[in-house]
Amino acid sequence: MIAFEVPGPPATQGSHRVRHVRRGPKRGRAVVVADNPGLYSYRAAVAALAQAARRGAGVSDPFEGPVRLVVTFTLAPPKTVRRALPSVRPDLDKLLRAVSDALSGVLYRDDGQVVQIAAWKVYGATPATRIALEAL
């Protein structure tokens, strides 16, 4: 099993948007950009910490077979909390998509290898993402 924590608020991976370049040498071309500007730095942090955790666990290559992914997203509570669980945005599936894509090629070859997922959103004093991956 490989387990690690990514400090900071988690980012979502939603849809991409197409923007058209209006100025410069690439004028008139379409560029695909993510909805969330913090997504790329979050995915890079997840991938870097996953690679360090993999090396620390003595695993040289990404897993080949089926894997189980367990993720806990700790979110900062709003100023007035009226619910025990964060049943509001960000969406759990979009948070998972960002983590799953960041781990692809690092802890496993392809995210199609993930056959079991357990995921939670919780409130906590320090926002973070706790990730554990186990070969089945």
Can you describe this structure in just a few lines?
This protein is an alpha+beta fold and 136 residues long. It has helices at residues 39-56, 92-103, and strands at 2-7, 16-20, 30-34, 67-75, 114-123, 128-135.
What key phrases describe this protein's structure?
single chain, alpha+beta, 4-stranded mixed beta sheet, 136 residues, globular, two-stranded antiparallel sheet, 60s Ribosomal Protein L30, Chain: A
Would you write up a description of this structure?
There is one protein chain. The chain is an alpha+beta fold. It has one domain: 2-Layer Sandwich (60s Ribosomal Protein L30, Chain: A), CATH 3.30.1330.70. The protein is about 20% helix and about 30% strand. The strands form two sheets. It has a four-stranded mixed sheet, covered by helices on one side. It has a two-stranded antiparallel ribbon with strand order 2-3. The model has no long low-confidence stretch (mean pLDDT about 90).
Helix and strand topology:
Elements lengths: L1 E6 L8 E5 L9 E5 L4 H18 L10 E9 L16 H12 L10 E10 L4 E8 L1
Parallel strand pairs: 4-5
Antiparallel strand pairs: 1-6, 2-3, 4-6
Helix amount: 10-25%
Strand fraction equals: 25-35%
Q: Which architecture name does CATH use?
A: 2-Layer Sandwich
| CATH fold naming | 60s Ribosomal Protein L30, Chain: A
Task: Quickly count the domains.
Answer: 1
Q: Measure the end-to-end span.
A: 10 Å
The description of the largest β-sheet is:
4 strands, mixed
Rg value: 17 Å
